[in-house]
TrEMBL record:
Highest taxon in the source lineage: Bacteria
Protein name: DUF1990 domain-containing protein
Domain DUF1990: 30-191
């Protein structure tokens, strides 16, 4: 049986560098689109994350990249690869046409933090950066935060980006016209979908 189409594309990503140097982004510098989104997920008992609780469920969904709306974007990767440094082929639908882009996980966050007042939080998430031939340059970060004193769980999305060179004039015009709206729709849908998926799996447990 032939490998699925994305296997070939994924293998090509190993040789691709990031399409920008991270030092190019300076917070507050004009020219970048900077976004933050967040929502509350179902809470759980105070204290560290519970096995099979909403924090753990959301964590598994994040690692599997199942929270984006598959009608807009689907991520393909090798399940055996570690999360840090993982390459992903993102299949996006834009203007009725299918496109593929490469990203690489550049950072993994998995820790417990204690604030000055002694409050503890658990964090899990990761960020990926764009690779050569992507239409944008930038980074997207997905982060879960559990507040141990209350059991509150948040999902946070942070990104910075700007358009890269798009050779095709038609695609460049369309992306510049609609790209920001699509970015915001993508993020809002991720928030809703992750919440729905966590609740659905909690009911099934």
């Amino acid at each position: 049986m032939n490998d699925p189409w994305w296997k070939t594309r994924l293998s090509e990503l190993d040789a691709l560098p990031y399409n920008y140097d991270a030092s190019e982004y300076v917070e507050g510098q004009p020219g970048w689109n900077v976004d933050h989104y967040d929502c509350d997920l179902p809470s759980e008992s105070p204290g560290p994350p519970q096995p099979d609780g909403p924090y753990q469920i959301a964590r598994e969904i994040l690692v599997a990249y199942q929270f984006p709306d598959p009608s807009r974007i689907v991520g393909y990767f090798n399940q055996e690869d570690s999360l840090q440094g993982r390459n992903m082929v993102l299949e996006a639908k834009f203007l009725g046409i299918r496109f593929t882009f490469g990203v690489r996980v550049s950072k993994v966050i998995d820790d417990e933090q204690t604030t000055k007042d002694g409050t503890k939080t658990n964090r899990f998430g990761y960020a990926y950066r764009t690779l050569q031939d992507h239409w944008e340059i930038g980074e997207m970060q997905y982060l879960l935060v559990k507040h141990q004193p209350t059991g509150r769980i948040q999902f946070q999305m942070d990104s910075y980006s700007k358009y890269d060179r798009i050779p095709n004039v038609f695609y460049r015009w369309g992306f510049q016209l609609l790209g920001r709206r699509l970015q915001k729709q993508f993020a809002q849908r991720c928030l809703v979908r992750l919440n729905e998926m966590v609740q659905e799996r909690m009911r099934a447990n």
